[in-house]
Amino acid sequence: MKPENKGQESLPRFPESLWRGTTELPSFPRLAEDHTTDIAVVGGGITGITAAYLLAEAGRKVTLLEGTELLAGTTGFTTAKITAQHGLIYSNLIKHFGEEHARSYFRSNSESLEWILQTAGKLGLSCGLEREDAYIYSDVGDGKTLKELENELEAYRKLGLPGEWVDSVSLPMRIGGGIKLPGQARFHPLQYLKGLLEAFLAKGGTVYEHTMISEEVEDEDGLTLFTERGKHRIKCRHAVSASHFPFYDGGAMYFARLHAERAYALAFEPETDYEGGMYLCVGKPRRSLRAVEWEGKKLVIAGGESHKTGQSSCTIKHYENLEIFAGELLGIRQIPYRWSTQDLITVDKVPYIGKLSKDKEIYIATGFAKWGMTAGTLAARIIADQIQGKPNPYTELYDPTRFKANPGIKNLVVENANVAKELIQGKVEFAHKKIGDLKPDEGGVVRHDGKRVGAYKDPEGGIHLVDRTCTHMGCECDWNESERSWDCPCHGSRYTYDGEVIEGPAVQPLTKLDV
């Protein structure tokens, strides 16, 4: 199903983000021996690279460790809005955290935005950085969302935030109403972070890729981390988990306090001029828009179509829905890129940032809820301060050991009831297909030797079979058609078509089966 637009091209066959498709990144070796450092930063996205840069700049010996390749996780697949306008957030923050913490949330994200701009200028980075006004809006006729926007504007006024009400936008569409937040920004995140990485290396930083860190940690005479492959030891004084899902849980049960969602994006060349601004429809279906420069042209990134990871029967339909939306709104000349991403969301919607516990020098940053450009930068700055013993005014708000009874208990019950449902359903579902039913470049659950297994037939006809049982907690993974991956619907682990871990909390691959 595609919109009828003159000159419109079809969706790209394979997903690739514009950011990764337009950035040449350096490669680094796998850690192949025991290693000693002052600070081990685990995770090569915006949080990890920024934290490594800050700590190296402070004169510390820092090693950055990435389980796959740098910037191949959520940061490489973002829509890259740098903003403190995170949907309908401030009315809920006032209700559950109080006015002072709500102001702190705005200040902390706004300061991170400014820090990005200042750092890009300081390092002379050419990364497509542009100031843009940000808008949240409701569709015409959506009275419920309009009321929520009015409540959000009241929260802005109560907190003294610089938002203003709008009844129309420059896009060729009518809205029910919206809130404009001036002075936000957009950029090319990988070109920016490539610059930070180069500055980190220039200050003596060390990087290892394809180095998965296990959940095992020893804390005698400092910390000892272990690699999954080879069990090499990494001795350090401090460890930072910037790996999306924390590599070390410490009994905090983060798998129960976070849930994973996937979202989708298209970068398309519009037929109608796009006059600027960053937009987010906060009703349903949720839609996001922003401009980006590509090969001398202005493209528009359309995003949305969120769903819980592993809980969508046909993921390609999400791209098609965005294609219809973009075509009807602005028309489409071409679609050079399409991609999807995964985000973790905490039970109270505020990220977990800081020291995991009083007795271990392990720091975590997770649960950015789709706003990782400011939240990831904020997390790096908070953790860098904490490691150096500096006070940070936002430590209490983002403390990962907190638990807000309201809405935490309600959301905890809801999310874990969903996990239980998916765990049971995955064990009893019936597979109708056989291996021979699969077409080239098709995957799914098949019946093989009397069992339900995961199968993928590659374009050359080769068959790849896996046991779909997630190695984290035993849920059954589902086939993600558009990404050609196995996705766990319980806690968001993802695997390649032949079972290798793409992202956690799982650290062990799926079991490969004989054909």
Short summary:
The protein is of the alpha+beta class and 515 residues long. The chain has helices at residues 18-21, 46-57, 90-97, 99-123, 143-159, 189-202, 254-257, 316-330, 372-387, 395-398, 405-428; strands at 35-36, 39-42, 62-65, 81-82, 130-139, 164-166, 175-186, 206-208, 213-218, 223-227, 233-236, 238-241, 258-270, 278-281, 287-294, 297-308, 332-346, 352-357, 360-366, 442-448, 451-457, 463-466, 478-480, 485-487, 494-496, 501-503, 512-513. Strands 4, 5, 6, 7, 13, 14, 15, 16 and 17 form a nine-stranded mixed β-sheet that branches. The protein has a six-stranded mixed β-sheet with strand order 8-3-2-12-19-18.
Fold and architecture overview:
Strand 2 (39-42), helix 2 and strand 3 (62-65) form a beta-alpha-beta unit. The protein has eleven helices and 27 strands. It is 28% helix and 30% strand. The protein has helices spanning 18-21, 46-57, 90-97, 99-123, 143-159, 189-202, 254-257, 316-330, 372-387, 395-398, 405-428, and strands at 35-36, 39-42, 62-65, 81-82, 130-139, 164-166, 175-186, 206-208, 213-218, 223-227, 233-236, 238-241, 258-270, 278-281, 287-294, 297-308, 332-346, 352-357, 360-366, 442-448, 451-457, 463-466, 478-480, 485-487, 494-496, 501-503, 512-513. The protein has a domain at 425-513: Rieske [2Fe-2S] iron-sulphur domain (Rieske Iron-sulfur Protein, 3-layer Sandwich). It has 515 residues and is of the alpha+beta class.
